[in-house]
Amino acid sequence: MDKVILEAKTRSERGRKVNKGRKEGLVPAVVYGNKVDSLGLWVSALDLKRLLKKSGESTIIDLKIDGKDDRNVLIHEIQKNGLTDNFMHIDFFQVRMDKEIETEVELVFIGEAPAVKEQGGILVKSIDKVEVKCLPADLPSHIDVDISVINAFDKHITINDLKIPAKVKIKADLETVVALVTPPRSEEDLAELEEKVEADVTKVEGVVKEEAPVEEKKEDKK
Fold first, then answer.
1. Class of 103-182 per CATH?
2. What is the mean pLDDT of residues 113-141?
3. Is-contact 145 157, C-beta < 8 A?
């Protein structure tokens, strides 16, 4: 597979001092690996966003550090701000091109399921990634899942149905269901579900069903 290039520069700032770099459009990062000393880095948030959009997370990156130190790396972890979705930190794992690696590859769902389009069913995606083992050069950026073959509610796609490159080994159970289509709910099903929810809510701890207040009778004064 073709490697993608990402420019980086060494970073000495740590702790709260990295906030200044973030405001300038940089993402603090670290690269490490087996028998490799960890090194703090800066990468461009814009470049990182473009790389992920084009190639995804499961791809070998040619990380060019300070324009001279080239390293083959995989993205190990990306941390984002839960409110803004901005990149907060990224971990790169340095790999050897002659040694097999184990990692997860994203599943990309393509096509349109006739059971959804023509029969009103609901598409259920059981998994969105699959664990693989291969040499870094053979690592696919993603694996396609063609859901157009799901033409009935009893039809489903397993890992064994996927087109996996010959040099890539799957670490998961091949009979694992990847996608299926469930029948649409009838009006009777929805009504029954609603009744069941209303009945169960009174059983939740702390929920008390209110009753109309009863006025106390006052004794007549003699």
1. mainly beta
2. 93
3. yes
Phi first, then psi: give them for residue 154, nearest 5 degrees: -95, 5
β-pairing, 69-80 with 61-65? antiparallel
Q: Where are the beta strands (DSSP E) in the chain?
A: 4-10, 26-33, 36-44, 61-65, 69-80, 87-94, 101-110, 122-125, 129-134, 142-146, 156-158, 169-170, 177-182
User: Tokens 């324009």 sit at which residue?
Assistant: 67
Can you give the pTM of this predicted structure? 0.74
Q: At the topology level of CATH, where does 4-95 sit?
A: Ribosomal Protein L25; Chain P (2.40.240)
The pLDDT tens digits of the residues spanning 55-76 come to 888 889 999 999 888 999 999 9
Secondary structure string (H, E, C) spanning 15-57: HHHHHHHHHCCEEEEEEEECCEEEEEEEEEHHHHHHHHHHHCC
Domain ranges of the chain: 4-95, 103-182
